[in-house]
């Protein structure tokens, strides 16, 4: 198969982990006889530094022209500590999502057996949990009008959802539930928010079309609690942009570490694959970042954008083997890990496939 | 001391647990020689049934005329499944918060030693954690304009914060941090929301007035993860209404159970004290609800509204003793709890003081 993949490392450890993700794609191409070509583009802080723009037109054009994008992370502490900055790395990420119509963000939360002990949650609570989140990614309070009034003394953000926006993400979630344990949990705050009431209405209206899927509605506060108390009760979860942002980061603890979690953003055109973790400037340049989330993002890319299931499974099996062989990156190591089994970013990549 | 306390049980298990909270207040009055008088009023679903109004004027007047309010819970599944209902129990709760100016919601997350095993989180992660949340309670997306447009096909909710609103809650949190471990974590989503950027600006501006308090800013997604990964790193947490709703429910797992967590809502006038848990209609009428959150809310009431620290401590010590004596309500019992140590709601109340 011939495919063109755009590598967009972005900021911080995004650079380090995406390099490993790309290496793994190269190994897969060699092994399975595919012809993948690559290009690279800038986004986020590094794009601002180079061009003044967090998402240069050139990057967007390259994304549109590619068959899939392997993405790193964006963000820089400089902006976090300056709430008044007008140009920010995250704008590049949000604009990319909007421009490419990436309305569905899939975040599979699956625990590798070997990491059962790495979580702060008890193994007996975790064992067997397997959740697939569908986070809406191009609407909600992220994209509504925002600004200041009263001479800057009042700030506002508008959350907005249309029926159409809710329906298309809900359908994706229903479809996925059908191929899994046939349970869908829709998370909202319908006892307070009008956007949530519309959300619930739409999901309720779709439910009769999926009689084989058991639908449950949960308030976001209660869901945040239940995820930790009893993660096994969840199968597919569908929720709005902001709630999805919070709940999936929280749920990373179910997988033992944020450093293991991949995501796929799909919609109208090119799909974008990226780790859930951020740019992590505190460990940038040390070579200790866990590259497995980027590697598993590459696996999602092969499966979802290219339909290469065997190749995708080969990557997952390789990650599993690495863990079974006792290797760990620093973030998932514990006091029982022998020093010679602790791998840096690059070495972890070399150990795979 | 002469004080007038209004009991507002509300819906579901609110009725059952508040009865126990009141009994404990009566015992304290007898023991310490205080004269507490009581009245009762309706809110939520029961108020809608009786008067058509989730917060009748009479209830509001009684609240204003009392020295403190012991509150239960509001909510009813009937409305949850009907997103189009115009009159809803929660409107009573929100109107109460607004009308009484209850802008600061204090939620202490403290683990009783005996419950170390009751949580889904590992004991070694939990041991020693002690967090005090300050959730802003009268602003944000809860109270901005909300509605529909495009013939009902688009829903919107406006989040809003003024400098003044952020400053008053932040000051309360800074003041509290001074009396504790001197660490304040302000949680926002300043990389996306304008309200969060204002929030961060205000907290940053106040920080130099509290040089003895170490201030940290965290994004809400990351905070949701950190709370579970390493709860001990938090001391005082201050955040907006919606984020506070989600994070404090999540944090209930740090305390072993939602059924143990009390909260205080304070501001311009009468303080309101209530469990964090909701109306829990699935267990209503069974007499098995854990009343300890209501009992601990009574303890907060005595301490914060009446300045009766010794009396408040007596309640906390009584709860501690009940647990040390091996008694449990169903929600905090486990397979090691002998059947004769499992108490129903009323019996748990009788065991105290
Ligand atoms: C960086 C930030 C804007 C982003 C988000 O909130 O969507 C990130 O947290 C994510 O989850 O991809
Ligand atoms: C019932 C609901 C409106 C309420 C809230 O969201 O504030 C509740 O969850 C709470 O935390 O007190």
CATH class of the largest domain in chain A: Alpha Beta
Overall number of domains of chain A: 2
Q: From the alpha-carbon coordinates, what is the Rg of chain A to the nearest angstrom?
A: 20 Å
Share of helix of chain A, binned: 25-40%
In the predicted model, the low-confidence regions of chain A spanning at least 5 consecutive residues are none
Roughly how many Å apart are the termini of chain A?
A: 19 Å
- Which molecules are bound in this entry? 3-isopropylmalic acid
Task: Quickly count the helices of chain A.
Answer: 13
Portion in strands of chain A: 15-25%
CATH superfamily of the largest domain in chain A: Isopropylmalate Dehydrogenase
Which two protein chains have the largest interface (Cβ within 8 Å of the partner's Cβ), and how many residues from each? A-B, 68 and 68 residues
Q: Which assembly state applies to the chains in this document?
A: homodimer
- Main beta sheet of chain A: strand number and arrangement? 10 strands, mixed
What is the averaged pLDDT score of chain A? 95
Strand and helix order of chain A:
EHEHHEHHEHEEEHEHEHEHEEHHEEH
Strand order of the largest sheet of chain A: 2-1-3-12-11-4-5-10-8-9
Structural class of chain A: alpha/beta
Shape-level CATH architecture of the largest domain in chain A: 3-Layer(aba) Sandwich
Function (chains A, B): Catalyzes the oxidation of 3-carboxy-2-hydroxy-4-methylpentanoate (3-isopropylmalate) to 3-carboxy-4-methyl-2-oxopentanoate. The product decarboxylates to 4-methyl-2 oxopentanoate.
Main location (chains A, B): cytoplasm
GO molecular function, one term (chains A, B): NAD binding
Cofactor (chains A, B): Mg(2+); Mn(2+)
